[in-house]
Amino acid sequence: MTHGIEWLNVYGGVAAIRAKAIFDGRGLDTERFGNVMMDARSVALPFEDPVTNAANAARPILDRTGTDRIELLITATESGLDHSKSVASHVHRALGLPASCRMLEVKQACYGATAALHLAIGHLAARADPEARALVIATDVAVVGAEGAYAEPATGSGAVAMLVGPDGGVLAVDPGAYGLHSFETLDSARPHPDRDLVDVDQSLVAYLSCATASFADYRNRVAGADLETTFDHLVWHTPFAGMAKAAHRALMRDQARASTAAIEADFARRVEASLRYPGLIGNLFSGSVYAALASLVDTARPAREARVGIFSYGSGCASEFFSGLIGPRSAARLAELRIGDQLDARVDLDFDQYLALLPAARSCLVPQKDKDIDVEGHLGLARAAAAGRPLLALTGVRDYRRTYEWIN
Fold first, then answer.
1. How many structural domains comprise the chain?
2. How high does pLDDT run on average in the chain?
């Protein structure tokens, strides 16, 4: 019995804008567009927040599996709504999870979901109950505007939901196979609910040093591990695809002393399939690496068992390199959820529409005692993209209490 991810779903919202439209609209240097390696990014509507993103990612899974066996819910988010109450409590209610369910929220920048996944696996292994399941959801809302410069076209909103259990139908996590590297640095921060700070240069340095050091620790723990031969595929934390390519290049040079041509060929063979969904959604924070995993499975569609090396990084910083197995069952389960089709069905916004929506997205985490939300005014966009799927919507705030309703 190898615990892992049994179901995996990605929610990229119902609206998106082309990354090139933001480059053009903001007057950014188009010479740098190729480095971002982005096609589009999700855009939050006024009735979307981290709770709605989480529930909308998880519901397609729970519609198939039911909720009775879930006894642990963990939300991983940088987009908290309260200094004491967790996002998980709202999600628990919206999804109708059992009362006999532990729930909590974790925060460790973009590493949070990986920490939550391992916590869930440890909880289930200790229970030794083949019927017990855990639900881990990474959910965030971008608050980046023009001041974000080149981060703005690459920053998305949405969620990734993972049902964790003993059959590892999507990813069977290799027990005890991991490497860690963490230290304190201020490469990014969210000092206010509507403001992200990013030191791009420091973030790149920290990310690359963590990729190298966490894999070195993996090799120390896993006898015979080799970057070139152990893994059929590699999945990197992907705030934007260009960052994943930089990490792959750095490790191939460090571990394999590979030539530029060999690195490019290896990237195309083992990494490129993981970049499709991140390139359509943008940075999902701690969900990014699992959106990349979903992209790999849906794009490569493995016909046999294959080992994946996964690098998870969170600013501040914490990182881990771990591994697991995917296979035909992985492809079948993700194909059933039709993630790619749902991303393709999103409504394309032009730059003026994006600017009109941006203030609501950026302020959705700011505490307000009372707030009216024009759900009806945006239902046309939602219904066009959702194609009949139920969506959870934030319908208003009264005396700081948020209210939610399933629509469609």
1. 2
2. 94
Domain enclosing residue 130, as ranges: 4-170+339-407
pLDDT band at 398 (very low <50, low <70, confident <90, very high): very high
Q: Select which of 90, 233, 237, 248 is catalytic.
A: 237
Indicate if 245 and 189 belong to the same structural domain. Answer: yes
Per the annotation, the verdict on 78 as an active-site residue is: yes
Query: Which sign, positive or negative, has the C-alpha torsion 183, 79, 15, 61?
Result: positive
Stretch 19-43: mean pLDDT? 91
Looking at residue 200, what is its pLDDT?
Answer: 76
User: Would you call 27 helix, strand, or coil by DSSP?
Assistant: coil
Using alpha carbons, select from 301, 313, 5 the residue that is nearest to residue 160.
5
Query: Which one from 3, 48, 110, 233 is the annotated catalytic residue?
Result: 110
Q: Which of 6, 48, 71, 78 is an active site residue?
A: 78
Same structural domain, 217 and 163:
no
Burial of 219 per CB tally in 10 Å (0-12, 13-18, 19+): middle
Asked whether residue 252 falls in the same domain as residue 346, the answer is no
Of 303, 333, 363, the residue at which a domain comes to its end is: 333
How many other CB atoms are there within 10 angstroms of residue 109's CB atom?
A: 19
Give catalytic status of residue 3 as yes or no.
no
> For the CA atoms of the chain, what is the radius of gyration?
20
Residue that wins the pLDDT comparison between 1 and 348: 348
Q: Which of 333, 354, 374 is where one domain is finished? A: 333
pLDDT digits (tens, 9 = 90+) for 109-134: 999 999 999 999 999 999 889 999 99
CA 255 to chain centre: 27
pTM (two decimals): 0.96
pLDDT of residue 385: 66
